[in-house]
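Changelog note: in this version the structure field was regenerated for every chain. One regenerated record is shown below for reference.
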Amino acid sequence: MKKVLLLLLVFSIVFVSVPVFAEMEILHITIDGELVEIPEGYGAAMIYNDRTMVPVRFVSEFLGFAVDWVESDRLVVFMDLTHAVALQIGSRTLLMLMTNERISMDAPAMIHEDRSYIPIRFFAEAIGMEVTWDEYTRTVGLYR
């Protein structure tokens, strides 16, 4: 009887733990086919509610955007020579400032461990990039 209970306990720990670890797996990001690493101290890409979330500062700087944080409104503003994008933490709306276009997202921007995160697909598509997802390698691909 003890062996059966021990076996059931081990079985339940292994199979119940798998989904938790799946959410914690390392994600990879490629830009134009090149693997990019998020520098230490920027946070890490993660899956949250089935969406790939990336640290705002990393993605903006890597793609050549200046980024500004408006603390009073919890607002992130991204700018380059051809785009200006605003995003409020907790909101599901991405605002293209030059055209006043509003893009609805199915996941809100959020703060995790004192870092702002955005769902990468919506930001990348808003600035004209193509986005791919490879479930097998857990890789997000961004293409200009």
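Spot check on this record: Residues 77 and 86 are 4 Å apart (CA to CA). The chain has a mean pLDDT of 85.
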